[in-house]
Design brief:
flat, single chain, alpha+beta
């Protein structure tokens, strides 16, 4: 796996304070004196072969040397007592609030548990102020949202977090059997009553389908099948944030995490691949339907073999805000590489009922005034 430096503090050359990763410059910046420092440039070819991948079978069967290690030598982790999320951070950052549910992280931090080290990280490219601007625009479009949601507009309400993903590649061969449907048309005669009440016979063209047996073998290459390895943010929400700018992946370096929180994978590698096969199966099914051809296709069976299966452990960045309403947590997430926003919101019954009641009351008042005026005539 990718080697990690021994020291994970990044002292400022100007004032010796701890520098943080700056998405605006993709380098390090001191939050106190403002001095900046560049990081190693990415490979010229973008997402180059320098970012290693690993044979899946070797790791699942534990044939490969597995050298678990924490995200960084100085990393600490703390578990949220409310939602169960495990949050990793680097001093001098502190635990604070849980970025996933907004509850206080009161448990005592401990040294981060070792894990299968990340191969690559997608550096956050959206600075916090731009993420907050996107978040405010999202908030302004939420009608009837409770006031609790407005706390997300505060500067301290969103946090940068790197979430774990498994990235799978595989070659597949699929044997299938099914049927190919071909459309044809027949003339159908039917009775109809005309305007004078007489029954007349009419004709129309009706589509029919003739089915033929079909079978064969298709080969597919599935690449960059991303599977979220976090259960703290729903998969549907993370999928809605796609696409991720994987061309900008960088070899993992703890410097990218300075000033951000991170999360270790909650979905292990083998179950992650099982989940990936569901996504691959949808792509394979489309290839099978193309191979069957015709106007319609019916698939009876598919038997798929996976080989040359490779994986990468990636950390992808989000800005996330969490709040509670009626004791239920809600999240709004910003893709920190594109600025895409996805979130959930409750509806405030007060904000819905009060305007409706005011309108009803206004109509009642107008009606009473109208009746009063009529009675005086």
């Amino acid at each position: 796996m990718t080697p990690q430096p021994q020291a994970d503090r990044f002292p400022c050359p100007g004032c010796s304070a701890d520098m943080q990763f700056d998405p605006a410059t993709l380098g390090m910046k001191c939050p106190f004196c403002g001095k900046t420092q560049t990081l190693a440039a990415p490979p010229a070819a973008g997402r180059a072969a320098l970012i290693s991948s690993h044979p899946l079978d070797d790791f699942v069967n534990q044939h490969a040397a597995f050298d678990p290690r924490p995200l960084s030598a100085a990393a600490l982790q703390v578990s949220c007592g409310a939602c169960g999320s495990v949050v990793t951070f680097q001093p001098p950052d502190v635990a604070g609030l849980c970025p996933f549910c907004g509850d206080s992280l009161v448990a005592q931090p401990k040294a981060a548990d070792p894990l299968l080290a990340p191969d690559a990280v997608l550096p956050a490219a959206i600075p916090k102020d731009r993420a907050q601007a996107a978040l405010r625009a999202w908030l302004q479009s939420r009608w009837f949202a409770p006031n609790a949601l407005k706390r997300l507009a505060r500067p301290d309400a969103v946090e940068g977090v790197y979430l774990p993903f498994w990235d799978f590649d595989a070659d597949t061969t699929t044997r299938y059997s099914g049927r190919r449907g071909e459309h044809y048309y027949e003339t159908d005669t039917y009775p109809e009553t005309d305007s004078e009440g007489r029954t007349v016979m009419q004709t129309r063209q009706v589509q029919r389908t003739k089915w033929h047996p079909a079978s064969g073998v298709v080969s597919c290459r599935c690449e960059d099948v991303l599977i979220p390895a976090s259960s703290s943010v729903s998969e549907s929400r993370l999928n809605a944030l796609q696409p991720w700018k994987l061309d900008s992946l960088r070899l993992y370096d703890p410097a990218f995490l300075a000033g951000f929180k991170a999360q270790r994978y909650q979905l292990e590698l083998a179950p992650g691949f099982e989940h990936a096969t569901q996504t691959m199966r949808r792509n394979i099914e489309r290839a099978v339907r193309r191979d069957i051809g015709g106007d319609e296709q019916s698939i009876d069976s598919m038997e798929t073999q996976y080989f040359n299966t490779q994986f990468r452990h990636l950390l992808l960045p989000v800005w996330i805000g969490a709040y509670r309403f009626q004791n239920k947590p809600y999240q709004v997430v910003v893709n920190a590489s594109t600025g895409e926003v996805n979130g959930e919101r409750p509806y405030s019954l007060v904000k819905i009922v009060v305007p409706i009641a005011a309108i009803v009351l206004l109509f009642v008042i107008y009606a009473l005034v109208g009746l009063l005026l009529l009675s005086q005539k």
